[in-house]
Design brief:
alpha/beta, Rossmann fold, Arc Repressor Mutant, subunit A, 2 domains, 5-stranded parallel sheet, 4-stranded antiparallel sheet, 8 helices, about 20% strand, elongated
Length: about 230
């Protein structure tokens, strides 16, 4: 899952980036509203974590611009503006949730995951494809009854494939899900990590669930695609 953080406070921003990366998310960070709007228009994000008191373009103005452009990306406002009227204004402008500063990182991560589950329609939470079972909340993967230990990147790739079972997912889309802007989208990093993933979820079990779509990307095989 790839997130965008729009936060101008360097100390808070660094803490949020570190916490969200440790939780397994790829995250881009910009420090003003204008760059935030450009980033959302240039990339596909699963969720935006948005401060309100931003230079160049206020957070509420950014949010209204997104919704006016029919961009339905999930938005979590994280702000020190605690007046009820401001919180209501933010939610009415199109935010999905509102978290007050100061906050605990564990709560931030829990709210992000809850919003992503709600948007994906997985309130109860697990993704299932054949013998594979992935829990986005507990960050666990089972193949049958055996747990499979994955790194954060491997988990993100598998989750992206399991959210679109039987569908060909491009290398670019997989890169967007799991890596931030520091990676060159022409590199073979996706192919390398798919190889790692296959060694853990397929080869020990004698299965071939991750199929290469030549010249395009990868697909998680289902009964219909076999």
């Amino acid at each position: 899952m790839r997130l965008l953080l729009v936060e101008d406070d360097p100390m808070i921003g660094r803490a949020m980036v570190h916490g969200l990366q440790q939780a397994g998310f790829a995250i881009d960070w910009v420090t003003d509203g204008s760059h935030g709007l450009t980033a959302v228009q240039s990339h596909v994000y699963d969720l935006v974590v948005l401060d309100l008191g931003l230079p160049r373009l206020d957070g509420l103005a950014l949010l209204r611009a997104l919704r006016a452009g029919r961009d339905d990306v999930a938005v979590l406002i994280v702000s020190a503006r605690d007046a009820v009227a401001t919180r209501v204004e933010g939610l009415n402008a199109g935010a999905d949730d509102y978290l007050l500063k100061p906050f605990d990182l564990d709560e931030l991560i829990a709210r992000v995951r809850a919003l992503l589950r709600r948007r994906a329609g997985t309130l109860g939470g697990q993704l299932v494809a054949g013998l594979l079972r992935l829990d986005p909340v507990r960050r666990t993967v089972l193949n049958g009854e055996r747990e499979v230990a994955l790194t954060a990147k491997e988990f993100a790739l598998l989750e992206a494939l399991m959210r679109r079972p039987g569908e060909a997912v491009s290398r670019f889309d997989l890169l967007e899900c799991a890596w931030d802007d520091s990676y060159d989208n022409r590199s073979n990093v996706v192919d390398v990590y798919i190889g790692y993933l296959r060694q853990k979820v397929d080869r020990p079990f004698g299965t071939e669930s991750i199929e290469t779509v030549r010249g395009f990307g990868y697909r998680l095989r289902t009964e219909e695609t076999e």
